[in-house]
Structure formats: C-alpha cells, structure tokens
Specification:
By secondary structure, the chain is α/β, with parallel strands linked by helices. Helices cover 43% and strands 13% of the residues. The chain binds adenine.
Length: 389
C-alpha cells in the first residue's frame, strides 16, 4: 500500500479552542475546467515520497484479523456491506482516540475490504492547496485518502476539502486579486478517513462532513495478550501465554506499545537468555527497559513525581508542567496523559492537573495529612451530645 510520508518542519501546536467556521469562497465556481488546466494542476501537485512500509507484516490485513475494538468493527462491517451492495464508496470516516490504537491500520483494512487503494498522509504535509489538490485529482473512484492529525489542517486545505467531500468537486482559484477566477474540477467520489487525537480541535464544518465518527478505546488485557501472541507468530518468536500477558500488562492498553515491547523482549531473550518468552523473562527484560508493572515509563513517572514534589500533587497547569519537565505540552497532553487518566493516576480539573492518591502510592510517596476542617456538622456527626437537633 502506498504511504505518503510527511517531510514538513514541526508544525505549530494547534489551539485548544475549536476554530471559527471557515468561510466558503465568495466567487461562484464555474462548472468545468479544460484538460490542460487539469494537467497543469497535476504537474504542480506536491509529489511526496511514496514509501512502502509493511511493518514486518504485523498489521492485521482484514477486519477478521483485527483484535479488539468490537463496537467499531461492527459499525464498519455494516458500513462496508451497505456501501458494497450499493456499489458506492464508504462514507467519510473520522477516527479519534489516543495514539497507537490502530487508526492507520483500520484505514488500511478498510481499503483491503473495499478493494481500493489507500493514500496515507498527514495534515502538516498538506500546507499548500496543490498538496491536497494532487491527491484528490489522482484518487480513483472509491479510493481512501487517510489524513492523520486532521485537526492540524491549514485553513486553505480544509476549505478545499469541503466541496471535495460533499460533492466530489475541486474548487480552485487561479490567479490573484482582480484577475482571480475560480475553476471547478469534478473528482472521483472518494472516502476521506481522518484521524485525530483531539476531536475537539476540529472545526465543526469539517466534523459535520464525516458520516461516521468513531472513537478507538484502550485495549483490554486479554485483547493485548492476543495481539502479542499473534505478532509473535508473525515474527516467528516463541512465547508462552503468561509471557504475553506480562508484556500486555505493561503496554498501556496500546497495541503499538505492546508490539514494541515484544520486540525488545525478543532482543533480550536472544542475547541474555534462551528458549521461549516466559513471564519471568518478560518481567526481567521490561524492568531493564524501565517499563514498570503498570506500564509507566521514565517520562510518566517523571511527570507524576514533578507534580507531587514540586506542586504538592497539583492542581498544576499544562504549560507549567511542560516548563517544569522540559517535555512538549502537546506530547504531555496527547501521548502521556490519556493513559494516566485512564488508570486513575491523573485528574484534569478546571484549575489544572492533579496527581491522585493512587499515583502517590504507586510512586512510593506518602500523602500529607490534610488539615481537618472542624465544622459544626462534623461535630454533630461524631458526637450526639452536641447535636443541635
Ligand atoms: N497489531 C496491532 N494492532 C492489532 C490489532 N488490533 N489486531 C491484531 N493485530 C494487531
């Protein structure tokens, strides 16, 4: 499958607030364009490197092979069957959730199931109109265009996508100022699959153009164990089920992490041990790689310990945390926090982040005694004799 790599410089962090709805181009588009204009568009289109990446063949290739996300699979199975029986492309699909849960994998599977091509790109690589225009003009009927980090689309690219998604039409402005004219190019109907870790950062006009909006959730222990066993088979690595479970426990509910840890344990066995991956070997290896029994790595533990040691457990703002730890605020918010929230080690409040008592305990800190506020009602509860009733 063709994957289009992004070679853009680091994008700006998007605002947390959803942006204002975009305005449509003022000029009414003319219906058609000439073949030479179309060719010109194709020529000026960005031609990002196409690289082939099969990730050692460990990505599942069909919905049947895909473990977990039961509800999502059911929804997609129905959408696929319905679209196929009508001989239409799939509806546009927005997938959201923390990184590493299988959004790209799902887009590739959809393409396999629909027997179409999938072009993969990322929003920061689509800065100029011609970047997206090239992809749209070249898409064949039913093809899937996967845009990762879709909340980072530039305004101009997003505006090009509106008519493309709604009416399979590319509206482009040729020239500048007084001489500017809008041309409209018919496109083949395609399916846009957008992926984001921040669904709230999408503008509502863009969000509203997706027919399906689906969340990916963290994986259960048994699902991750099955994924690790499956990947081990693909990698021809011998593993015992308790060994897979030990890796799964430390994989933060995330298949990408599970497969990464499996590869590290496989290295460890090859160099330091022998035989299959057992529970004990997996535990030893992952301790060595600084992944604790809850799956927290060095950065997770540092984030929590800075909150506890420097801010008495919080509340502390995201930017303050970023400054205090030297981590990027967006990375903290999108990569580290979701799992810490999920396992109940972190709370987000309007006043900032708070490390929970479970986090204090896990890191071996003793929580300070709270000063007891003596109220009349507490005296009443404790001492009937003082009751005013
Ligand atoms: N590898 C990564 N994610 C997977 C999944 N959900 N099912 C099977 N194999 C996987």
């Amino acid at each position: 499958m063709a994957i289009i790599s992004s070679k853009q410089p680091d994008p700006q962090q998007p605002d947390d607030e959803p942006q204002k709805p975009k305005q449509k181009p003022k000029q009414k588009p003319e219906p058609q364009t000439t073949p030479s204009q179309k060719n010109q568009l194709l020529e000026t289109a960005a031609r990002p490197d196409e690289v082939s990446r099969n990730e050692d063949g460990i990505r599942p290739q069909s919905l049947d092979d895909y473990i977990g996300q039961k509800a999502l699979k059911e929804v997609l199975q129905i959408a696929i069957q319905a679209a196929q029986s009508r001989n239409e492309p799939l509806d546009h699909l927005l997938l959201y959730g923390p990184p590493g849960l299988g959004k790209t994998t799902m887009a590739l599977i959809l393409a396999q199931e629909m027997k179409v091509d999938c072009k993969i790109t990322t929003a920061p690589a689509l800065e100029r109109p011609r970047d997206i225009a090239g992809l749209l003009v070249n898409a064949k009927a039913g093809d899937i265009l996967f845009i990762d980090e879709i909340h980072r689309l530039s305004r101009v690219t997003e505006e090009i996508l509106y008519p493309a998604m709604e009416d399979a039409r590319l509206d482009i402005t040729i020239g500048k100022g007084q001489s500017a004219r809008t041309r409209s190019i018919p496109l083949q109907p395609f399916t846009l699959v957008g992926a984001t870790t921040k669904v709230g950062a999408l503008t509502s006009p863009l969000r509203d153009r997706f027919g399906l909006i689906q969340r990916l959730r963290f994986y259960e222990l048994d699902e991750l164990t099955s994924i690790i066993l499956r990947t081990a088979t693909v990698l021809k690595t011998e593993i015992k089920e308790p060994g897979a479970m030990e890796i799964a426990r430390r994989a933060r509910g995330t298949p990408r992490i599970a497969n990464r840890l499996l590869k590290r344990v496989r290295d460890y066995v090859q160099v330091k041990a022998s035989g299959p991956i057992t529970e004990q070997i997996a535990g030893e290896a992952l301790e060595l790689f600084n992944v604790d029994p809850c799956g927290l790595d060095w950065t997770d533990r540092r984030l929590l310990s800075v909150m506890i040691e420097n801010f008495n457990g919080g509340p502390v703002g995201l930017d303050t945390m970023a400054a205090a730890t030297g981590e990027d605020a967006q990375t903290i918010e999108e990569v580290y926090e979701p799992y810490l929230l999920q396992i109940g080690y972190l709370q987000r409040t309007p006043r900032g982040r708070i490390a929970t008592p479970a986090a204090w305990r896990h890191l071996g800190y003793e929580m300070p005694e709270k000063p007891t506020l003596v109220t009349l009602s507490s005296i009443n509860d404790d001492n009937d004799q003082l009751s005013l009733m």
